[in-house]
Write a structure and sequence with these properties.
246 residues; mainly alpha; globular; single chain
Length: 246
C-alpha cells in the first residue's frame, strides 16, 4: 500500500503543479477506489494539498506567474472559510458531500468551456481586494468541506468572471490552496479526523510531482492548458459518478 500511495502522490503532484490545484479533486476519488472512507480520504487529501500548494506556490512566485497581492487577499478569505468548514462537515452525510463535489465539478466545466479564448501575454484586470476576500471565504467553506483545495472553483471564477489570464488564474488557484488547506488541516487535527501516516506518505512524495508539473505548465499555450483542464474535470466527474452509483 505504501508504494501505491507514494506513486499516487507523485502523480497527484504533477497534476497539482500543472493544473494549479491542490490535488484533492483527483486524490479523493482515487482514495475512495482504494477503499478509504470519504472522511478519511478528505483528511489525507488535505495533508497532500498543504505540501503541494506551499512548494508549488513558491516555484510560481519565483517564475513571476503569481500575483502575490491578489493571491494573499483571496487566500486570507480561504483561511477563514477553511477553518469554519470544520464546524460544517459533522452534520453532513457522506453521500451529500459527494453530490456537492459533483456539482462544483459541473460548475467548473461550464465556466471553463464558456470563457473566451486568450493568449499568453494578456494582462490581469484590476479586481477589488474586498471582493477577492469574500470570494475566498465562500470557496474556503465549500472546498475544505468536500476535501479539495478550492482551485477547482476559484480558477473558473478568476478566468470566467474576473477575466484573469488563465495561467495566472492557475497560479492563484494553487496559492489559494495554501491557506484553505492549512486551516482545514488545523480543523481536522482539532476534531481528530485525520490519517497522518498515509497523508504524509502522499504529501511528501507529491513534492517531486509538483516541480515537474509546473515545468510542463510553463511550456504550453494557455488555451491548450484550458483544454487539458476541461478533460481532467470530465475524468473526475466520471469517476465520482461511477463511485456513487456503483
Amino acid at each position: 500500500m505504501e508504494i501505491i500511495l507514494s506513486l499516487t502522490g507523485i502523480g497527484i503532484g504533477i497534476l497539482s503543479g500543472f493544473f494549479g490545484m491542490g490535488g484533492g479533486t483527483v486524490l479523493v476519488p482515487i482514495l475512495l477506489l482504494l477503499g478509504f472512507e470519504m472522511r478519511v480520504a478528505v483528511g489525507i487529501s488535505i495533508i497532500q494539498m498543504t505540501f503541494s500548494s506551499i512548494f508549488g506556490s513558491y516555484i510560481n512566485y519565483r517564475k513571476g506567474s503569481l500575483i502575490f497581492d491578489d493571491g494573499l487577499m483571496v487566500g486570507f478569505g480561504g483561511f477563514v472559510g477553511g477553518y469554519l468548514s470544520g464546524y460544517l462537515t459533522a452534520g453532513i452525510s457522506e453521500r451529500n458531500l459527494q453530490y456537492v463535489f459533483i456539482f462544483f465539478i459541473l460548475f467548473a466545466l461550464y465556466r471553463l468551456y464558456t470563457s473566451p479564448k486568450e493568449n499568453d501575454i494578456e494582462n490581469s484586470k484590476s479586481v477589488s481586494k474586498f471582493i477577492l476576500f469574500i470570494v475566498g471565504i465562500g470557496i474556503g467553506i465549500i472546498s475544505i468541506s468536500i476535501g479539495v483545495g478550492g482551485a477547482i472553483i476559484l480558477i473558473p471564477i478568476l478566468s470566467g468572471f474576473l477575466h484573469y489570464p488563465f495561467k495566472k488564474a492557475v497560479s492563484a488557484g494553487l496559492f489559494f490552496v495554501v491557506f484553505s488547506s492549512i486551516s482545514g488541516l488545523i480543523g481536522r487535527l482539532v476534531y481528530g479526523e485525520i490519517d497522518l501516516y498515509h497523508g504524509l506518505i502522499i504529501g511528501i512524495s507529491s513534492l517531486l510531482g509538483v516541480y515537474l508539473g509546473i515545468l510542463l505548465k510553463e511550456k504550453i499555450h494557455s488555451q491548450k492548458l484550458k483544454y487539458f483542464t476541461i478533460i481532467m474535470y470530465l475524468i473526475i466527474l466520471i469517476v465520482m459518478i461511477y463511485k456513487i452509483f456503483k
